[in-house]
Each structure stands twice: as C-alpha cells, then as structure tokens.
Amino acid sequence: MRFISEQIHLPTLGLTLALGLAGGLIGQAIHLPLPMLLGPLLAVAAAALGRWKPLGHPVQFPMMLRMIFIPIIGVAIGGTFTPAILDEARGWWPSLLAIAVFIPVAHVISFRAVRATGQIDPVTAFFGTAPGGLIEAVQMGEEMGGDTAMLTMLQFLRLIVTIVCVPIFFTVMTGHAVGSAGGATLTRTAMTLADLPWLIGAGVLGGLLGWRLKLPGGMVTGPILVSAIVHLTGLAQGSPPNWLVNATQLVIGTSLGVRFAGMPLGRFWLAIRLAGLSTALSITLAIICAFSLAGFVGEPPAAVFLAFAPGGLTEMSLIALSLQMSIVYVTAHHAARILLAVAVARLLAGKLAR
C-alpha cells in the first residue's frame, strides 16, 4: 500500500520541507529529543493526518530523495571504524547469539498479544508484528491473504513508535534532552577537501553494492563497509559534517511523516493501538536484554537496548550516530535483526498456514 502519490508537485514539496524544518527548529527550541528527526516527523505527520493540502496537494516527499541522503549515514558510521573497534567486535558474540533468541520470542509474544484483542485476522497479526523487515513482512503477509493496508500501517507504526519512544527513554534515563537539543555535538574528525572525493565515492559505490548484493538495509550497510575500508586504510580521515547529518535527519523525519497522508483515521487509531501494544512488549524485552547482557559484551546497557530496539536499521543507526553511542555495535545488531526477523517469519509462516 502506498499512502502518497509518486507524482511530485515541486512547490508542495518545498512547503513540505519548510514545514519539516519548522518542526525541527521548534523541536530545538522546546528541547525535544533528537529535534531534527522527531520535529519534522511529528509536524509533517500532523499535517498529513489533518488532511492539509498546500496548493491543493497533500504533503509529499519523493522516496528517491530519501535514498540519496541515506548513504550519508553509512559513510558517517564507517568513519567511526578503528582497529580497536574490530578487536571489540570479537566480544559481541553473546548479544548476537541473544538476538537470535530475542527475535522469535518477541515475535511470538507480540503476535499472541495482538491476536488476543480479536481486532484483526491471524495472518495480518502475525506479519504485522514481525520485529523487522518491513517490506518483506508486508509482501509475505499479502501473499498469504493478509490485510495489506493494515499490515503496512502496523509495520510502519512499529518504526514510528520506536523512533519516538527511544529518544524519550534516553532523556528520562539521563535527565536531559539527548541529541542536538541537549547541546551534544558529534566529535568526529572534520572533513577536508582531500576527503571529499573518497567520501562521495564511498557513498555512491557502497549504495550500489548494498543494492546489488541485497544486503539488509543495503543503502546504509553498503556505504558503511566501503567507508570503513576507506578510513581504515587511511585514504580519508574526516566524516560528513554535522550540518549534513542534521539535514539527513530532516529528510528522514519528513519522509516518514508524509507516509501518514491518506491513512483512514479510524483504521489509523486501531493500528496505532495494536502497534503500540506489540512495540511496548518488544521494547520491554529489549530493556531486559540490555541489563542482562551489558556486562558480557563490554557495552553500556543503553547501547545494548538501542541494538535490540525494534526500529529500522537506518533510523536506529542515525540515533546511535547522533548520540555517539556504540555506533558500529548498534548497526551490526540491527543488520542481524533484519535477517533473523525475515528468516523467522518465513519459518513460522508454514506453521501458521497449517
């Protein structure tokens, strides 16, 4: 299901971006966690749900433009690679093993909870509660006769609920707003002109490799791998500047917000209740894993929680980047989560059919 038209009206696109930017600036002013991500998301989503049509068109944003910006996240994450991180990765096996258990447990518990409400059919409930692989889950559910519109809303709202709740969780835990609202800045090496062609090349080549090789979250993981090689070999030292990372947050927040355009309000409120229920259960399990595993993997509980949170790889990696929190650790676990979530859904789908 698509909630926005593929035909882009450029003046409306400009107004949508202006609305997103206004949301980000207001978010900064009121100390919203990760204001340049959440501010645009909330502002544009409110306009979309309110049926606002600037210049006669609903708020809109081309997915192709989002795809151009996403590799910036991967290039920035690749810039954090050091030989020390590669050494640390050998100690991550307990949490990587744990996530293989976490995925089916979280899926089954969430499925049973949503199914117990009696609001939707078993196929839609099963694929709508898969804790990863949005596109794959919707496709598999559609093939098995699920409600495609509700499936899409459940999976999309899982991402939104997680993206909104995770920064708030960190704000409550730390006592102050996280991200740029709290005054945090990214302590990465400044980019020079000599770095520029290498970083652009890492983004373009990495994105193409990720797409061609069908890597999980390929538009992020591909540039991560190429950027990591570029930085580990000393070809480049710097990373994308803060203003570009903030612009990427604006683009991602705005692109998520426009997905609410055209959602029937009645179905939306049902979907958000069910998605909130399943996501709350998964987040609770992630918190348990965080405090249980932190001592075994040498990472703070907050980083382990972020690695297990049921959000999208792009969005969770961006949050980790903005919070300067075990970026490579979080991204590696979310790539594993997507692969496992799709594999578990396929495995259990046969039992569901029977």
Automatic annotation (TrEMBL):
<keyword id="KW-0472">Membrane</keyword>
<feature type="transmembrane region" description="Helical">
    <location>
        <begin position="274"/>
        <end position="296"/>
    </location>
</feature>
<dbReference type="InterPro" id="IPR017516">
    <property type="entry name" value="AbrB_dup"/>
</dbReference>
<dbReference type="InterPro" id="IPR007820">
    <property type="entry name" value="AbrB_fam"/>
</dbReference>
<keyword id="KW-1133">Transmembrane helix</keyword>
<protein>
    <submittedName>
        <fullName>AbrB family transcriptional regulator</fullName>
    </submittedName>
</protein>
<dbReference type="Pfam" id="PF05145">
    <property type="entry name" value="AbrB"/>
</dbReference>
<feature type="transmembrane region" description="Helical">
    <location>
        <begin position="190"/>
        <end position="211"/>
    </location>
</feature>
<feature type="transmembrane region" description="Helical">
    <location>
        <begin position="302"/>
        <end position="323"/>
    </location>
</feature>
<feature type="transmembrane region" description="Helical">
    <location>
        <begin position="36"/>
        <end position="52"/>
    </location>
</feature>
<feature type="transmembrane region" description="Helical">
    <location>
        <begin position="12"/>
        <end position="30"/>
    </location>
</feature>
<keyword id="KW-0812">Transmembrane</keyword>
<feature type="transmembrane region" description="Helical">
    <location>
        <begin position="92"/>
        <end position="111"/>
    </location>
</feature>
<feature type="transmembrane region" description="Helical">
    <location>
        <begin position="64"/>
        <end position="86"/>
    </location>
</feature>
<feature type="transmembrane region" description="Helical">
    <location>
        <begin position="156"/>
        <end position="178"/>
    </location>
</feature>
